[in-house]
Amino acid sequence: MQEVKRGKWEWYEEEHGNPIDGYDTDWGWRCPECMYTLSDEYDDPDLPPQIKFCPNCGAKMDLEEKQ
Questions:
Q1: Rounded to two decimals, what is the model's pTM?
Q2: How far apart, in whole angstroms, are the C-alpha atoms of residue 67 and residue 59?
Q3: Is the CB of residue 61 less than 8 Å from the CB of residue 54?
Q4: Which pLDDT band holds residue 67 (cuts at 50, 70, 90)?
Q5: Confidence class of residue 21 from pLDDT cuts 50, 70 and 90?
Q6: Which has the closest alpha carbon to 28: 19, 16, 40?
Q7: How far apart are CA 49 and CA 30, in angstroms?
Q8: ∠ CA 57-39-29 to the nearest 5 degrees?
């Protein structure tokens, strides 16, 4: 029997680029198991996705937020 991966959607903001060409920032919700990023439809950091499974790796998104 294969172990079920579990996680919680995580919000990320990453800056990339260089001083010559300029910088850009990527952001969104991603799976902590496989780093799959959800589409721009889910781009509100105050509204976590209600998707229960990662569509890429199948991780179950049911862990509670750490206090």
A1: 0.78
A2: 22
A3: yes
A4: very low
A5: confident
A6: 40
A7: 10
A8: 70
- Identify the residue whose tokens are 């850009």: 24
Q: Quote the CA–CA distance of 14 and 51 in Å, as a whole number.
A: 23
CB-facing half-sphere around the CA of 26: CA atoms within 13 A? 8
Residue 37 is given by DSSP the state B
* Between residues 67 and 60, the one the model is more confident about: 60
Side-chain-side CA neighbours of 44 within 13 Å: the count stands at: 6
Beta-carbon contacts of residue 60 (< 8 Å; ≥ 6 apart):
4, 5, 6, 7, 52, 53
Terminus-to-terminus CA distance in the chain, angstroms? 32
- One-letter identity of residue 22: G
